[in-house]
Design a protein that fits this description.
single chain; globular; 5-stranded mixed beta sheet; alpha/beta
């Protein structure tokens, strides 16, 4: 039934998108479709993976890399010990990707990880802080009243390893989990892992894992034949792809833009109000306007100063700041000149599906259609160039 509903929704959404395109007399490319893969899966495989992911869809980025070899890489843990990943190629290994500031990562460490390791004593568990040095890791655990755990290998940021993980697997969330069985990637989860959820996923992670080749449709063909890849989109864009490269600061902006550009932000599809912060923003007021939604985690002085500059110097567009943590919204509203909303406060659900790894970052919207994203706003000059590309006269041409 769940799968049937997904299929029906996909058809209906496709029909709505087609009407919009016809009215504008524009032909939009299909983006790098990550969310639609499951509808092609053989029912038996679908049911197992759907259950393993706690009855949630697994996006293509998580499926596409199944079977990838564990890299041979030497890291250094928080105590200075050498950690050679090649020594774990015959083990059951889980790598968690964390950030020192991530509240969900703290909940994971405080409530779930030790319980998981108590039950599954054969696991090797690495908590890799993609954002966090040694002092940051110690402060992370001190903040939740814990010592750095003995049963978890805690590793501070390593530029080479981060580049390797982001380029090869590119998980979207903190925390994210990568499971390797006998040196092969068997499962990717973006979001926290409770003990119950881990129990559901364990079989697929370690006992009966799937490889990319196992993911087939009803006729036995690879499900990936049904989707457009980044290379397909890049070929269609031709020289216009060079515009995306102009604003790329970590490769993430390009991949994210190709994934979301051309999507309807869905102003009417809003979350219920679960935040203590009461915003006066009504997103339907922006249906016919050019909009930059700047995602921010914490109102540090540097980010506040930059965003206020952007607000003052870009009067031709609307700028709204989105507190992705729902922890600092009142403080942001006090410090920022532009309007501020909480991720839990009446925002379109689409915004919850767009995740950045670095903040502040921006989502650009023209008349309700997402035209691109800029990950990690470094300065006002680069923001201006991103605005020209995504909200300028040729913005629609980029997503043809």
């Amino acid at each position: 039934m769940k799968k049937l509903l997904i299929l029906l929704l996909t058809v209906l959404l496709g029909a709505c998108s087609s009407n919009t395109v016809d009215e504008k007399k524009e032909t939009y490319i299909k983006p790098y479709k990550e969310e639609e893969v499951f509808k092609y899966l053989n029912d038996d495989i679908y049911s197992i993976l759907y259950s393993a992911n706690n009855e949630n869809e697994i996006e293509t980025y998580a499926l596409d890399k199944l079977g990838l070899d564990l890299p041979s890489y030497v890291l250094t843990d928080v105590y200075g010990n050498r950690v050679d990943l090649s020594e774990y190629k015959d083990k059951k290994l889980v790598i968690e990707l964390s950030a020192y500031w991530c509240s969900h990562c703290k909940d994971q460490a405080l409530l779930h990880t030790d319980k998981i390791l108590e039950k599954y004593e054969d696991l090797i568990f690495i908590n890799y802080f993609n954002e966090g040095d040694i002092e940051g890791i110690k402060a992370f655990y001190k903040d939740i009243g814990m010592d750095v755990p003995d049963n978890v290998i805690c590793i501070p940021y390593d530029e080479g390893f981060s580049n390797l993980i982001l380029n090869e697997i590119n998980p979207k969330y903190y925390p994210s989990f990568l499971s390797f069985n006998n040196g092969v990637l068997t499962y990717v989860k973006g979001a926290s892992f409770t003990t119950t959820e881990f129990d559901k996923a364990y079989d697929v992670m370690f006992n009966n894992p799937y490889t990319r080749e196992d993911l087939v449709d009803y006729e036995g063909n690879s499900i990936f034949e049904h989707t457009r890849t980044k290379e397909d989109v890049k070929k269609d864009l031709g020289d216009k792809y060079l515009l995306l490269e102009e604003i790329d600061n970590d490769e993430y902006s390009i991949n994210l833009s190709l994934t979301i550009m051309g999507k309807d932000i869905g102003y009417l599809d809003q979350l219920s109000d679960e935040s203590n912060f009461k915003s006066e923003v009504d997103f339907t007021d922006y249906e016919n306007k050019d909009l930059a939604i700047i995602s921010l985690y914490k109102p540090d002085d540097k980010s506040v100063e930059l965003i206020n500059q952007l607000y003052r110097e870009n009067e031709d567009i609307e700028i709204i700041v989105l507190d992705v943590a729902d922890d600092y919204t009142k403080e942001m509203a006090d410090k920022l000149d532009c309007k501020v909303v909480s991720i839990m406060n009446q925002v379109p659900k689409t915004l919850n599906d767009i995740s950045f790894l670095v903040y502040p970052s921006a989502i650009f919207v023209r008349k309700g259609i997402i035209t691109g994203a800029y990950s990690n706003i470094l300065n006002k000059e680069m923001f201006k160039r991103a605005k020209e590309i995504f909200l300028g006269e040729n913005s629609i041409a980029i997503i043809k």
